[in-house]
Amino acid sequence: MKIAVFGAGNIGCFFGAQLLHTGAHEVLFVGRQRVQNLIRNAGALTVVPVNRPTISIPADKVSFVTDLQDLIAFDPDYVLVTLKGPQVQAAFKELGDLRFDEKTVFISIQNGARNPDLIRTLVPGNLVLGGMVPFNVTISPEDGSHFCQGSGGTLYIEQSAKTEPMALALREAGIVIQVSGNITGVLYGKIATNLNNAINALSGIGLLAELSQRSYRHIWSRCITEALSVYFAAGIVSLPVWGFPTEFMPYMLSLPDFVCVLLFRNVIGIKPGAGSSMADDFVNGKPTEIGDLNGEIVRLADEIGKGDDVPYCRGVLWLVQEVERRQRSGWGGAGWRPKLTGEQIRVFCTAGASNTVAPAAVDILVTAILVVT
């Protein structure tokens, strides 16, 4: 079977390497020159799964291209789309008049709930399935060439007549996978749990360090509560991502600090040193996926007339957008990131994140919070 990884960054390299390691499939990695150089300079593509042996593939055995014409020429049976949400339209538009064979099946493995539908508009002649990854993958800071799984979890793929061959290939690679008949519910469940991505990025510290502090967990809890309320009002049935109802998470997050650390480290499986993908985006000066996460909750709330009921989701959204704006303008440098306390975020969300607050007042408040960091 011929499998292409479109957007071979951290997540794409992580899954692609495991599929390639089986020796049963042709795998083409399609990504940026920076990642290709990283693999070449390291001499190998190395991935570090949770609770499984490290996999290392010699660089000369890794087919990595940066030209989308090579993707078309590869004529894949399946394309795993692991692009960041903001990159999707631009990446597909680079194809121009090039077209995939109608046999090619696309699987969107991305944050957010709307990317599968977006990809369907970009490749209308092909089947597009949704997928969900519940964990982050980071590049190890020690050597800069190992793609490390941050926590455990199950990969979900949308059920269809064309799902099983890909599901089987992933299982044979040792990847835990579940086929779902309600991928939309899974994706919205993932959004609720992913609302901490931005909080972690704004905190400037690692995941376990952040989650060990009640003030940050309070922000996440409020964001989840707002999201679930909006889902209910919009008629969306979200599904749990971590094996227990999402509705339970606000109660779990209110437990004592030491209990939460034990849960996240030993039950959820968050590794020491792990961070969120949005924190990585801040460090690398890249556009974030905030629009697909907190932005999706705010968008839904505004659509159903509940915009004033999501001050925490809106506040975190605006803070991240302000960081992105400052990075684009060169303020603090491309890799600049804030180090906000949970209390600073809470104050902004309760005092500044409202549709009724004048934009000038919001700008003053955001600037006051970010300057002190």
From TrEMBL:
Q: Which residues form the Ketopantoate reductase C-terminal domain?
A: 185-323
Per the record, the domain of life is: Eukaryota
For this UniProt entry, what's an example GO CC term? cytoplasm
Task: Kindly give the InterPro entries that the UniProt entry links to this protein.
Answer: 6-PGluconate_DH-like_C_sf, 6PGD_dom2, Ketopantoate_reductase, KPA_reductase, KPR_N, NAD(P)-bd_dom_sf
The chain's coiled-coil residues are none
Keywords from the named record? NADP, Oxidoreductase
Q: Which segments constitute the Ketopantoate reductase N-terminal domain? A: 3-158
Entry's Gene Ontology molecular function annotations: 2-dehydropantoate 2-reductase activity; NADP binding
Query: Which Pfam families does this one have?
Result: ApbA, ApbA_C
What family is it from?
A: Belongs to the ketopantoate reductase family.
The molecule here is called: Ketopantoate reductase PanE/ApbA-domain-containing protein
- The scientific name of the source species is Jimgerdemannia flammicorona
